[in-house]
Amino acid sequence: MSSKISLTRYLVEQQRVDGHIPAQLRLLLEVVARACKSISRSVNKGALGGVLGSAESENVQGEMQKMLDIIANEVLIEANEWGGHLAAMASEEMEGIYVVPNRYPQGEYLLLFDPLDGSSNIDVNVSIGTIFSVLKKPEGAGVSEQDFLQAGCKQVAAGYCVYGPQTTLVLTVGDGVAMFTLDREQGSFILTQENVKVPEDTKEFAINMSNMRHWDAPIKRYVDECLAGVEGPRGKDFNMRWIASMVADVHRILTRGGIFMYPWDKREPDKPGKLRLMYEANPMGWLIEQAGGAATNARTRILDIQPEKLHQRVSVVLGSKNEVERVTRYHNEA
Ligand code: P6P
Asked: ∠ CA(179), CA(82), CA(142), 5° rounding?
């Protein structure tokens, strides 16, 4: 019987065999995974845990917070602040960075996260998830928000945990993408897929179609051609999915291919898009690239974007390489 490989063993081997990740980064990732297990327990309790519904407060994005948003944020902060591997954290739910208190040793990594992405799905029992990204703190004493403003290509680890029919942790440390499914009886994440690959072509697109009248012409051209099906210029029929939970949509694409789009639209012309660069687009973009896909802002590679603000937004087109490149081509031709 093939021995089950736990997340711990996978990370130890990435550290020892491949010399790929330092011990401090391995420890950080194990702490994040444990925090995700704890969040999964709260999510799975739902109404029984008294954790559904609104928290009657707004986050820095001006969005109504759900109680589980706040719980997930606190779980990640409390799990990671004492271990000595982090200097500071940044979260979608907090305006400024959270510097590790002086009573704990400061480490060399920076952790960014969207503690519970897809909040609008919490109360209707649809998959949600935690997205995380790890950067190295620049040399020098202390830590500031400026230290976080690194392009996505500087990430040293990225991943998400999707809380769905299974709780699955998906991770890259720059050596491909691996998936770990939570074995609740043992309480450990077990390796269930490695060397994840996104097919270069697809027949499945994901976008919120209710925004169609607000899109720019190249996006409209691309979607119209998908809708035209086999009689249209693409010569094939397409399927559509939109879960309105980026983690769930990206997980489907990593599992069977597809293209995900949350483009700029004219409702808020001064904003490049809805999704956040640092703790949504960058980690998801790196995972997709590590699995052989592509991730752009409809024109240029997401991981090359030099951030100017911690919570800055970005347009996102990611997934099967040939489809993402087609969207870029249509923007260049416009
Ligand atoms: P809409 C969830 O709120 C989120 O940030 C992503 O997870 C998701 O892809 C998107 O917003 C859904 O946005 O406008 O379709 O509700």
From this structure: 105
pLDDT digits (tens, 9 = 90+) for 86-113: 999 999 999 999 999 999 999 999 999 9
pLDDT band at residue 1 under the 50/70/90 scheme: very low
Q: Where do runs of H (alpha helix) occur along the chain? A: 7-16, 23-45, 67-80, 145-148, 217-228, 246-256, 282-290, 321-333
- The top-level CATH class assigned to 7-193 is alpha beta
> Pick from 223, 243, 218, 210: which is nearest to 298 by CA?
218
State the pTM of this model. Answer: 0.96
Ligand 1 contact via 208 beta carbon (within 6 Å): yes
Decide if pLDDT at 50 tops 90.
no
CA of 108 to the centre of ligand 1 (A): 32
- The ligand 1 atom at the shortest distance from the C-alpha of residue 211 is 14
Is 209 near ligand 1, meaning CB less than 6 Å away?
no
Handedness of CA 289, 291, 293, 298 (dihedral sign): negative
What would the mean pLDDT of 178-182 be, rounded to a whole number? 98
User: Where do the structural domains in the chain lie, given as residue ranges?
Assistant: 7-193, 204-333
Q: How far is the CA of 289 from the centre of ligand 1 (A)?
A: 21
If one residue of 262, 280, 314 were mutated to test the ligand 1 pocket, choosing by the most ligand atoms within 8 A of its CB, it would be 262
In eight-state DSSP terms, residue 264 is -
Over range 139-145, report the average pLDDT: 94
Residue 207, CA atoms < 13 Å, CB-side half-sphere: 29
Our answer on whether the CB atom of 300 is closer than 6 Å to any ligand 1 atom is: no
CATH of segment(s) 204-333: 3.40.190.80
Which ligand 1 atom sits closest to the C-alpha of 245? Answer: 7
Name the average pLDDT for the chain.
94
